[in-house]
Write a structure and sequence with these properties.
The complex is a heterodimer of chains A (about 475) and B (about 200).
Chain A: H1 6-12, E1 15-18, E2 24-27, E3 30-33, H2 39-48, E4 58-60, H3 79-95, E5 98-99, H4 110-116, E6 125-128, E7 142-145, H5 148-157, E8 159-162, E9 166-173, H6 182-193, E10 201-206, H7 208-211, H8 215-223, E11 232-234, H9 239-245, H10 254-264, E12 277-282, E13 289-291, E14 299-301, H11 315-327, E15 342-346, H12 347-350, H13 353-363, E16 373-377, H14 381-389, H15 392-399, E17 402-403, E18 424-427, E19 442-445, H16 448-457
Parallel strand pairs in A: 3-4, 3-6, 4-5, 6-7, 9-10, 9-12, 10-11, 15-16, 15-18, 16-17, 18-19
Antiparallel strand pairs in A: 1-2, 2-8, 13-14
Helix pairs in contact in A: 2-5, 6-8, 13-15, 13-16
Chain B: E1 6-14, H1 21-24, H2 44-47, E2 68-73, H3 85-93, E3 97-100, H4 105-112, E4 117-120, H5 123-133, E5 140-144, E6 149-151, E7 157-159, H6 164-172, H7 176-181, H8 184-197
Parallel strand pairs in B: 1-2, 2-3, 3-4
Antiparallel strand pairs in B: 1-5, 5-6, 6-7
Classes of the chains: A alpha/beta (about 475), B alpha/beta (about 200).
Amino acid sequence: MSPTTLYDKIWDAHVADETADGTCLLYIDRHLVHEVTSPQAFEGLRMAGRKVRSPDKTIAVPDHNVPTTPDRVNGIENEQSRIQVEALDKNARDFGIHYYPVDDIRQGIVHIVGPEQGWTLPGMTVVCGDSHTATHGAFGSLAHGIGTSEVEHVLATQTLIQKKSKNMKVEITGKLLPGVTAKDITLSVIGHTGTAGGTGYVIEYCGEAIRDLSMEGRMTVCNMAIEGGARAGLIAPDQKTFDYVMGRPHAPKGAQWEAALTWWKTLYSDDDAAWDQVITIKAEDIAPVVTWGTSPEDVLPITANVPAPSDFEGGKVEAVERALDYMDLTPGTPLTEVEIDTVFIGSCTNGRIEDLRAAAGILKGRKIKEGMRAMIVPGSGLVRAQAEEEGLAEIFLAAGFEWRLAGCSMCLAMNPDQLEPGERCAATSNRNFEGRQGRGGRTHLVSPIMAAAAAITGRLTDVREML
Amino acid sequence: MDKFTKITGVAAPMPLINIDTDMIIPKLFLKTIKRSGLGVNLFDEMRYDDDRNERPDFVLNKPAYRNTEVLVAGDNFGCGSSREHAPWAIKDFGIRCVISTSFADIFFSNCFKNGILPIVMPKEVVDVLLKDAEKGENARMSVDLEAQTVTTSDGEVFPFEVDSFKKHCLLEGLDDIGQTMNKIAAIDGFEAKASVERPWV
């Protein structure tokens, strides 16, 4: 057999039908559903008199709209948000799919709940009406976002109409330096490739620095594959993956576990596999980074200065002029002099227990700057409970952070957690687009420890000074 | 789904690169449980000021471009989220075709599900089309899917590539689910085989 990549192997194992022009029906093992991109799909099923083909492979959880304040037990105040969440409640019940309602401790961001509950397993195909489905690639599963029409298609047929993407290898060699995290890896890769660099590709991340990451860190890396334009990001499963998965509620048990493990251990790219593109970055060349503009590709080390439009070429010149105007930044300003008023730690990028532990490590014994609005939004109710058990919540509260309930929160600001016009936020989320965290709000993407450091000083800060 | 065969209409230039889905339709408007009525909020934050007045310098607010049917845009159009509200808003506004050097993967796929034709053209062609679009409402661009050509108001013709299956679906207005339902036997067969090979799934 000719050498193949991890992507090739997972793809080949899921083709249910192929036509002469290469258009395939790809079988979907797990379909994750949330309240924002699904109501029209369920409505489509009803209108056509169709059922959900595989309710046992379909998992729903409300996350985008849900408030993160304790008063959410009294219901959602915003009428439209409430209607969307109620629609998901009803659809989950009517169609008999797995469901974690708002008041279930297992509720959280769909991309945190999936792995946590053992729904996401190596070698699977995983889709969701959400671009950050790429997160699940950390398990060596082929996972990507889909639109609502495709959500309906998967609900009805458990397949997607797809053509195969190209293979890209992103290798991070060597070891990360202190203060450099998975977030800095993934942002640095996007800084390197640009937000369209991955278009048409599935990326496999590999190399010593990726192997060294925990499962949480690997999820952070894969989560932002979409920000580089790739359909999906993948990391080959290894012992860390198997250890993470074992014993989770929906992971296989007993003889099935052994059978699964045997197959999972074959899921890696052959040494001599062909790649359409290879990018190699030395881990030691990666610094703690921060975004300065309104595209995730606008990445610089924290030690750098705000760039000028003249530093760029082509269409990027106008885009940078617009971005600097929107961000209210002057070229030449050291990034460490940029003052912030808000800090958001959370999201499907950085809302897992390891992220909270890392932030607590910086915040322990310190206080946030006076007047700073700082919130930590755990990625799931179980992450929240674990952080409380480990004493992290006390550290956050003592430092002056708000300690919230689980949800997407200020990553996309569909719930009440929003920036006001002109507010400037150091955020551990994934997008710094104009208006992303609230109309007129300004976002600087950073790692959890960089966000914690910024909360203390009130400006973008090199966390290495606090280690 | 609406068919797409051939259109001739006003083309609007939006040369800005990396126009993302938050720009196309801000999250505020994702709370709907319908597909319709989003056109008024297309490019909402670029189109309206804080008091909801139209910004006169935004291209689609200019008299010449109020009936835009073709959008000629900068690189990497539609990057960001998977929200199908983006193509729903574009379609609801009346735009049936978007031309750029590149599109984000999910947005590109979403367009075809909604009777919108996204066309990838080389940079030098997009530059010519942007220039043509700048001429306003008297200059009409034609897009012919059957012939796979874009014709400028001056009659200059540029061929484009399109996936044959997607072309077929757009020309006929075919619904994906209906077509896949015709292949249920293949899906049943796959499931039977997979349940033996990977029973834990």
